[in-house]
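TA notes, week 10

Several of you asked for a full example with nothing omitted. So below is the full record: structure tokens for the whole chain, then the designed sequence directly under it. When grading your own attempts, check the secondary structure regions first.
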């Protein structure tokens, strides 16, 4: 009766703060290792792929067009690709989604 309810609540305040923050920190850690970190790795690999483009590579654009790289200029954001015989277009490097393996490079069937 002599202890007011405010003092009783204050004693558990420090422990309650830790127990409230622990799940939030755990969720952030899980998000970092399962979402943020793999996405950063994928972006790094894509930038390296775009930097290593060379003449003759078969590429897949973001629009779904499979083309052959004809001209690559360093320091320029555009790449000239051939989408059909004697049909050349310029595309931005960022729209290139993947570099495809050559047709004959598949593993032989056993």
């Amino acid at each position: 009766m002599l202890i007011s309810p405010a003092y009783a609540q204050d004693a558990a305040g420090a422990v309650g703060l830790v127990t409230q923050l622990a799940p939030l920190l755990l969720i952030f850690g899980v998000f970092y290792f399962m979402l943020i970190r793999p996405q950063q790795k994928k972006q790094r690999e894509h930038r390296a792929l775009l930097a290593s483009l060379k003449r003759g590579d078969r590429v897949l654009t973001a629009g779904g067009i499979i083309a052959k790289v004809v001209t690559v200029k360093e320091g320029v954001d555009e790449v000239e690709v051939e989408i059909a015989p004697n049909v050349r277009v310029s595309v931005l490097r960022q729209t290139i989604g993947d570099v495809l393996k050559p047709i004959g490079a598949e593993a032989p069937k056993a």
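Helices lie at 5-11, 13-51. Use that as a sanity check on your answer.
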